[in-house]
Structure formats: structure tokens, C-alpha cells
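Aim 2, interim progress. The first record below pairs a target sequence with its C-alpha cells.
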Amino acid sequence: MIHRMRPRLPLRRPFILGLTGSIGMGKSTAAAMFEREGVPVFDADAEVHRLQGPGGALVSAIEARFPGTTGPQGVDRQKLGTKVLGNTHELHALEAIVHPAVARAQRHFLMRHRARDLVVLDIPLLFEKGGWRRVGAVAVVSAPLWMQARRVLRRPGMTWARLKAIRRLQVPDRVKRARADFIIETGRPKSETRRQIRAIASCFRAHSGRY
């Protein structure tokens, strides 16, 4: 873990830590470990799944804009991905539907936990969409690129071509590492990753009296 925190926002309660990392780097595992440390986590991906799942609030809007991409189980992510990956215009159209709804859910999360010392916003595209400007510090989850590829290619429906297309949409891992306040390594045993996360949480608890 590298720690070079330069808070972007005034220290206040709750302190907002942005958690990000490229596909397959282990961000979901890291987020779960923060939760086990008692830190509230807003999972942007999970919120998108909820909004796009069965009965989700965005299903009808997505079907209207991208016909044939939804069904009884909500949005078919593979069909939708086929329409938007590599097509900037279509991707922006999807983001215009999804991002405002996720932003509203995030605001509600922050209100619910406004008395906490620390909260984590788990946002995959934190750097890509400018979310880093609205957090106090950034933790980047990282692993060797060969390990990333091995993890991602195990996923159903994933191919090298699809992985390459996703990587093109994401800030490279080396750039994220250079911009991070904390780097959480997940290419090591989970016990080591857990130790890093415990140290980060403890750091903010130790400084909570200064907020």
C-alpha cells in the first residue's frame, strides 16, 4: 500500500474515499473488506444492476432507446454491451440514462451516513468521468496485468476482443496508480490485501477528531 494522501476537499465528516480500479483488479473484493471493517460502501455497479434488474427503474427507458436489450430479467448486459462498446454515440446515450439515477442514489447514501467518520464510494470510472474531483482521496485497486486478464477471461461471454474494448474505455492502470493516494495490491494473498485496507480505515479513524 502506498499512502500519499493529498485531500482534495476540506476534512469534514464523513470523509469520502473514492475506491476505483480497472476491470478484474479486485475492486469488489476490496469493497467487501472495507464493509467488514465497518465502513459504509456505496457500490455504483451494484446500484446499476439494481436499476437495470427485474422491475428496475431504468429498464423501460433502456428498452425504448435500445430495443431488444431487455427481458423478464431486466437488461441483458451482453446484448446491451454489444450495442454500446466501441460506439461512442450509443455509449453516451446510455450514460445519459444511467448516470443521473446513480448520482441520486449516491446523494441519498451520503445523507444516510453523514454522521460517519469515513465512507467509501466504489466507482469503476472514477477518473474517466471526473468523480475524483468530488472525493477527499482516492484508493486504486491494482494487480499485475496478466492476473487481470486471467480473472476477466474467466467470466461468461468474455473474449480478448471484448476485454481490449473495455480497456480502451478505461484509464490505464499505471496512470491510476500514479494518481492514487492509496494503492491496494490484490495480486497478493487476501490476508495482505485485508491488512492494507485495515490500515487505511484505521488512518481515517485516527484523524476523525480533526474533522
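The second target in this work package is listed in the same format:
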Amino acid sequence: MLNWRKLHRRIHKWLGLSLGLLFCVIALTGSLLVFYDELDQSLNISHSKLQSNASPNFSNALNTLRKQYPDKLGSWRFEVTANAELIPARYYNPPETQHLEFAPLMVWLSRDGNTILRHDYWGQYLMTWLYNLHFTLLLGNTGTWLLGYAGLAILYLLFSGLFAWWPKRGQWQRQIKFKKRPSPIGRLYDWHKLLGLIFIIPLVILSVTGVMLALPKESTAILIKITGPIDTAEAPVNPYGTDADNTIIEPNTALSLALNTLPNSRGAWIETPATNGNPFYYRVRVQTKGDPSRRFPHSYVYIDGHTGEISEVFDYQKQGTSTTILNWLHPIHDGSFLNLTGRITWLFSGLAVGVLFILGAMRWFIRNQHKGKKAQVNIF
């Protein structure tokens, strides 16, 4: 008769030894990325340069960027941060990094929009390098694909450990307690077991959401079959073209129009019209009631850059089940859906993976040493 407990114990051991280091890299980088913005700002911008009293002036910021980077004729994206003391901006697909899969120009301006405090390219400074390591293993789309399927094996690693430990009827209390063990192997097992039980649920959630984020096509195909179609935001057709008068409404005005269109919403991103007229509309990204993502919410308001008329609205509250599930993946994965509590929980969950790997590897190493000594005794 097949001993399922013994089988899962072996699977858990060999998956842990083969995937453990990879799991540690993913988990430890993820722990740091939970506080991505805070760490990045503290590492790169002096607090003396920040403005705490000024209101964010995106119009000034856009003028400053146009003067500093006259060759950047496309759209700029400003992050609307309620409590931040600066204005983060992004320019996607700059000519100097077009040979890379993803390396937008990142610029940070003073709160009044008049001064550039810092500029860099995605992937060329620590926190974005860690993000690329976490999400792509620095291998681009190929790395993301590999991580997606490795994540499925990591899920099995977690469940195999749970199945190997699962108590028989009437032995639950005994299996949860620490036992008086004379050997270090037994003590290492108890700590590995306890830590694994404490963090099994967070780690399973992180693994499932990570797999779905890494394999979006596969995840979407499954969702469509189970819960229905995916809703997509459709950008309006540009009515002007490149010969249009480039006089546009101000970014701050566009933000106000978007917030009035979706009452009780909060601004997150302002994407400006391009100076070459293509596209010539604002796309303002806002967080509405019920949307779990604060930094990257899922409602969009498209605004005519000339007239200020609302062209299209894509409202989170009117999206279907499949789209809502996808919308929840990122805020669950980064812990922001539970605000600071979730982020701290995810931080310690990632650190726990490193400790679990060390405990398991030490136990395996000590056990092998004992086996080697017994073999030598038998030889002589």
C-alpha cells in the first residue's frame, strides 16, 4: 500500500532542495518591494529637498519636463500622491532605451513642479533592479514565464509539506506541540514545522497571485471559461491628428474634471496628451469605491485635450467578475489591500521563506552527515 505521507515528505524534501534558493530570491526581493516607494525615496532623495506645504502643481511639472526634455514629444504620466512631498513622473519608451523590453525614463520633481530632483531609467537603480529580479529573474519575458511555472511547483512544495505533516485522527494536539528531542534534527524539524504552519496561508496566497500575474494569458483564458469575459478600456479615436493646435487644458484641470465625472473618487495617475497630437487626450486613472488598488486603480477617464469634454469612462464598479478578479491580484500580491497590516504580514512571510529554507537545508545536511558516519562504521 502506498504511503502518501512518506511520498509527500520525499517530494517536499527534493522540491525544497531544488527550488529553495529560487523561492528565497523571489520571497526576499518581494519582502523589500512591499515598501518599494518608501525605500526608494529614502535612498535617493534628501529630505531637505522635499516640499511639505506646497500643493502639487502638475501644470508646472509638465512645463518643466517639456523644457528639460524637448525631444520627449509623447505622453508624460504623473503620479498623484496625496501625502508625498514630490511629483513622480514617467516617460514610456524613450528612444535611448527602446532596445530594452521595459525601461521608461523616471523623473521626480518638487511638489510645485518647478525643479527636477532626480532622474533615472527603470532597471538602472536598486529598487527597480530588485523588481526586475523578482518578476523576471532579469531575463525579460522569458524569466516571467519561467517564474510562473516555477510558482506552480512552489505551490506543490507548500502543499506537500502540509500533507507530510497532516496529523492522523486524534493526534492534532500532539503534532502541533514541540517535543522534547535530544537531537538537533528533531529540533530543526519542530521549528520548520511551526514556521511553515504559521505562514502557510500567506505563502499560498502569494504563490497563487504570483503565478496568475506571471502567466496573464493562461490565467485570463481560465477565468473567461469560468466567470465570463474580460472588460477592457477602449481609448477614444483621436479626432485631431498631428496638425492640430497644441493648445491644451492644464493637467490640474483634467484631474478635477475626472474626479467630478466619478464622484467620491481619488486621483492616481494623469497621462498627458502628446505634443505631436497623437494621442491628444488626457487619460486620468482614479480609484473609486471598492477598488482595492490605491496606487494602480482600475477606473479611467478620457478627456479631450482641447475642449475638456469627457470622451470615455471606464468605471471599476461596472466591470464584470473576471475583470474584478484580475483587478484584485496585484493589491493582494503586494499586501496593499490590507494597508500597512497586509504589507507587514507579507514582509514577514517573505522573510520566513528564507528561514524555512535554512532550517530544512540544515536538517538535510546533518542527517546526511549521520548517514555517512554510519556507512563508514559498517565498512570497518
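The chain has two domains: 4-33+132-224+344-379, 52-111+232-319. This observation will shape the mutagenesis plan for the next reporting period.
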